[in-house]
Amino acid sequence: MYTKCDENACPVAITLSLLANKWSIRILYTLFMAQGHVMRFNEMRRALETITQRELSRQLKEFESAGIVIRTVHPVVPPMVEYTLTGLGRSLHEPIESLALWAEKNGELVKRNRLEKIQS
Q1: Which of 100, 13, 27, 23 lies closest to 68 in space, CA to CA?
Q2: Which of 29, 67, 87, 99 has an alpha carbon within 20 to 30 A of 109's alpha carbon?
Q3: Which domains does the chain carry?
Q4: Residue 119: its pLDDT value, please?
Q5: Is the pLDDT of residue 9 over 80?
Q6: How far, in Å, CA of 81 to CA of 84, rounded?
Q7: pTM (2 decimals)?
């Protein structure tokens, strides 16, 4: 049930501010699909194709501070950085999968509705 609350204290607002942007769901989905839910930074960047290095780094730092991913730096040259979903991060799989199923079912209708709105 939705209740109004302070934007900085409301769990729903805090969670949406973390996830409701262009890249968050795509990044998480990429990690869900990775073997062992672990991926190197550059591997993730290549998988996401159009994301900038700066944006990927920013999003991953946000996820790390929220406890969604763990960042591991391996002491090798060149440095190797891996990101792993935490238990909290893995718990997002079901809601994101549900959202993906909804999008597959309704995406064309949403697209058509938006196009009609633009043309009117």
Answers
A1: 27
A2: 29
A3: 11-119 (1.10.10.10)
A4: 87
A5: no
A6: 10
A7: 0.83
pLDDT, tens digit, 9 for 90 and up, residues 33-76: 999 999 999 999 999 999 999 999 999 999 999 999 999 999 99
Query: What is the rounded distance in angstroms from the CA atom of residue 74 to the CA atom of residue 60?
Result: 17
Quick one: tokens of 64? 């790390």
Q: How far apart are CA 103 and CA 109, in angstroms?
A: 10
What residues are paired with 12 via a beta bridge? none
**What is the DSSP code (8-state) at residue 84?**
E
Q: How far apart are CA 58 and CA 66, in angstroms?
A: 13
**Residue 8 DSSP label:** T
